[in-house]
């Protein structure tokens, strides 16, 4: 019997959170969904975090993913942006961990490399490659959704390989692997 699994990919953000879902049957992946949570109309940062958490829980409860792949924040010049992005990622991770779903983080360069073969590929190049590989008829206006889908596809490509990124199977695993983040 061929094992099936669903992977939820998330590109966290406090402006737009992109996400995509794929179903894996054996060694084949099938596109399920991609979309985004548009948070631009909200000014309250804490409300945005609440909405990210609720939308992630809703996706989990609707699609029952077996694993979550999430894009890790990359260090930029703006510390405030980095902090907000880290919070968005943490809230999405907390939603998955609250449902005991294993989570793996991928750096943006690793995702781009897995999808296009080029760690410096543009969002457009990643989107076009996903369109080709998964047979998507159209691409969304905002490419945050395809970035979320790219995280899921990257995870599929890396499953079975060692050292794919940081993985957490629950709160206990997260605490053990991050003693410096616990006070």
From TrEMBL:
EC number: 3.1.21.10
Statement: the UniProt record of this protein carries the keyword Metal-binding: yes
Active site, UniProt feature: 11, 71, 144
NCBIfam families associated with the record: ruvC
Subcellular location: Cytoplasm
Encoding gene per record: ruvC
Family listed: Belongs to the RuvC family.
Amino acids binding Mg(2+) 1: 11, 144
Domain of life: Bacteria
One MF annotation (Gene Ontology) recorded for this entry: hydrolase activity
Protein name according to UniProt: Crossover junction endodeoxyribonuclease RuvC
Reactions mediated catalytically: Endonucleolytic cleavage at a junction such as a reciprocal single-stranded crossover between two homologous DNA duplexes (Holliday junction)
Binding note for cofactor: Binds 2 Mg(2+) ion per subunit.
Main enzyme class: hydrolase
Function in brief: The RuvA-RuvB-RuvC complex processes Holliday junction (HJ) DNA during genetic recombination and DNA repair. Endonuclease that resolves HJ intermediates. Cleaves cruciform DNA by making single-stranded nicks across the HJ at symmetrical positions within the homologous arms, yielding a 5'-phosphate and a 3'-hydroxyl group; requires a central core of homology in the junction. The consensus cleavage sequence is 5'-(A/T)TT(C/G)-3'. Cleavage occurs on the 3'-side of the TT dinucleotide at the point of strand exchange.
Keywords, sorted A to Z: Cytoplasm, DNA damage, DNA recombination, DNA repair, DNA-binding, Endonuclease, Hydrolase, Magnesium, Metal-binding, Nuclease
UniProt KW Phosphoprotein keyword: no
Protein residues bound to Mg(2+) 2: 71
Pfam families assigned to the protein according to its UniProt record, in alphabetical order: RuvC
């Amino acid at each position: 019997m061929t094992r099936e699994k669903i992977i939820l990919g998330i590109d966290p953000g406090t402006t737009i959170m992109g996400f995509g879902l794929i179903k894996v049957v054996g060694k084949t992946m099938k596109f399920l969904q991609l979309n985004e949570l548009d948070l631009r109309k909200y000014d309250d940062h804490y409300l945005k975090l609440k909405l990210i958490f609720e939308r992630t829980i809703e996706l989990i409860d609707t699609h029952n993913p077996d694993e979550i792949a999430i894009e890790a924040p990359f260090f930029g010049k703006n510390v405030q942006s980095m902090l907000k992005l880290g919070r968005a990622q943490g809230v999405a991770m907390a939603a998955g961990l609250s449902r005991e779903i294993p989570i793996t983080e991928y750096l943006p360069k690793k995702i781009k490399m897995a999808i296009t073969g080029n760690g410096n590929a543009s969002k457009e190049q990643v989107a076009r490659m996903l369109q080709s590989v998964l047979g998507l008829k159209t691409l969304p206006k905002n490419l945050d959704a395809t970035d979320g889908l790219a995280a899921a596809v990257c995870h599929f490509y890396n499953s079975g390989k060692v050292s794919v990124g940081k993985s957490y199977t629950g709160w206990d695993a997260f605490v053990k692997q991050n003693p410096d983040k616990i006070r």
